[in-house]
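Design a sequence for this backbone.
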């Protein structure tokens, strides 16, 4: 991109931020503009979402972003890594209706061995697969720690989950365990945003087709993706943030292929 074009693009972006105080706040708190633009659309904003579950919240980037899209929605965020949890709370300080929980979610209550990666976003309750280490070597170093784990259905019974409900699930290969431990809660949701993989990046993880089979059985349909992680060597898709919606919802999203 030529320098004048880059400058013009930056000026246009700045003008949009200045025109929209919500975007300025989002940028100031570290929200993701690309995700904001993808979600701030009628297919989602017309649903009247009242509660958001941010599972695998890390340091709160999604919570900040969805708060900008759905400022009236209550947000419950779940993050097992202590350092990330503390950043999450600081980032969302002052947001009405926000609550954070320093816990992993899974099939059973108790504790779980957690693989804390040198790159915190790659940390998981599962060991990293060789493919992941080979393609992203900076994430390979890890230490095993113990973290508390709880079933989503157990925690949900203690929370005020007003519908309609949106659930975002990004737990590095542990998605199927979270779903099985939260079946009744998941079935109450209108829309799910789930990180799904096409190749095993973690040992024993469920892949896209496995997640699709579970959710189809629970009354959801696949409705596209927000973005994809590509193999840095071949360019093929490794994983994506998949959108699943209730079959009963109006057809505001394109049908899946």
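Sequence:
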């Amino acid at each position: 991109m030529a320098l004048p074009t880059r400058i013009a693009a930056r000026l246009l972006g700045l003008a949009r931020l200045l025109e929209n105080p919500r975007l300025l706040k989002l940028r100031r708190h570290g929200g993701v503009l690309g995700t904001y633009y993808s979600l701030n659309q009628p297919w989602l904003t017309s649903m009247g979402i009242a509660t958001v579950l941010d599972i695998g919240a890390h340091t709160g980037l999604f919570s900040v972003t969805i708060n900008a899209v759905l400022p009236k929605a209550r947000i419950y965020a779940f993050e097992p890594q202590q350092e990330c949890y503390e950043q999450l709370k600081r980032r969302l300080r002052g947001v009405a209706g926000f609550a954070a929980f320093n816990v992993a979610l899974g099939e059973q209550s108790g504790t779980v061995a957690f693989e804390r990666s040198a790159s915190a976003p790659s940390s998981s309750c599962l060991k990293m697969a060789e493919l992941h280490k080979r393609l992203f070597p900076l994430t390979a170093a890890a230490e095993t720690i113990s973290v508390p784990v709880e079933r989503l259905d157990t925690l949900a019974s203690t929370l005020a989950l007003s519908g309609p409900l949106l659930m975002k699930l990004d737990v590095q290969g542990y998605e199927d365990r979270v779903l099985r431990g939260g079946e009744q809660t998941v079935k109450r949701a209108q829309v799910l945003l789930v990180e799904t993989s096409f190749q095993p990046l973690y040992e024993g993880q469920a892949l896209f087709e496995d997640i699709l089979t579970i959710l189809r059985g629970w009354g959801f349909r696949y409705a596209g993706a927000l973005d994809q992680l590509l193999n840095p060597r071949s360019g093929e898709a490794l994983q994506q943030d998949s959108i699943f919606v209730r079959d009963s919802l109006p057809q505001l999203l394109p049908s899946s292929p």
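Residues 250-257 have pLDDT under 50 and may be disordered.
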